[in-house]
Automatic annotation (TrEMBL):
The family this protein is said to belong to: Belongs to the AB hydrolase superfamily. FUS2 hydrolase family.
Residue ranges annotated for the AB hydrolase-1 domain, each copy included: 63-270
Signal peptide residues on this chain, from the entry's feature table: 1-18
Keyword Nuclease: no
Designated name of the protein: Alpha/beta hydrolase
Lineage of origin: Bacteria, Pseudomonadati, Pseudomonadota, Alphaproteobacteria, Sphingomonadales
Keyword tRNA-binding: no
Entry-linked Pfam families: Abhydrolase_6
Keywords: Hydrolase, Signal
Gene Ontology terms, MF aspect: carboxylic ester hydrolase activity
Highest rank taxon of the organism: Bacteria
Amino acid sequence: MHLFVLALLLATAGPTTANPLFTDPPATAAPRARMEVLHIPSGGVVINGVAYLAAGPGPHPTIVICHGWPGNEKNLDLAQALRRAGWNAITFNYRGSWGSPGDFRFAQNPEDARAVLAYLRQADVAKALGIDTGRIVLAGHSMGGWVTAMVAEEDPALAGTILISAANMAMLGAVPSDKLETRAASNSEALAGTSPAIQAAELKAKASSLDARPRAAGLARQPLLVLTSDDGLKPATDPLVAAARAAGGQVTEAHEATDHSWSDRRLALAQRIYDWLQALPAKR
């Protein structure tokens, strides 16, 4: 009897909808999903980028993902998942990081992100990559979250902004120099034209200009998603959230009990971001 009931339930159950984040696009899609290497002018050099381009004719909504310091976690699984779900995903390396030419400097990182956005918005580039320039979202993890905040505060054309376990690099200026150099030393292997002493000195000397808080009201220009974890960095984003809300911004917050890299919540991270992206209007 139990087997009969089970068979009946299976026979009458409706079709399940596959999660697009984890479902490969059909091989018959035209054009098929593909990857393109990007060469992006910034600060007198050409930095490295990669475009993960979604299947289908497009133009597609596009997310630009900024990595941290130094960027060991580049969120490439997130880029791949969002591509499967119909989004183009762009990753890049700041000057002096991970093979991009130039000397690594914190103050240059937002400049590089602005250069990436300007490059993608060029008509010929947007056409070649199938980018819907009215639906570009800027996202960043750790230091990349700080980069994202610094850029988004001044860019009303963005369709949305995402901060993932974001830092505020200005807050490191209060750390004693010896401890700051020790921290920088552990983050310097993939960085060129710099040293722990140079990085520590810049964070201290430029703490005021590196601070995302004074202009945080600009984050109200577009919908903002703030994702925090158990890494102790929530105080870095709380003032940004408060300022954006006070300025009338549309802010969504969520927390996961995981580490700074979201090591055991990668699927949850992708799902949270995708669900939020689905509700975004285009920016024209």
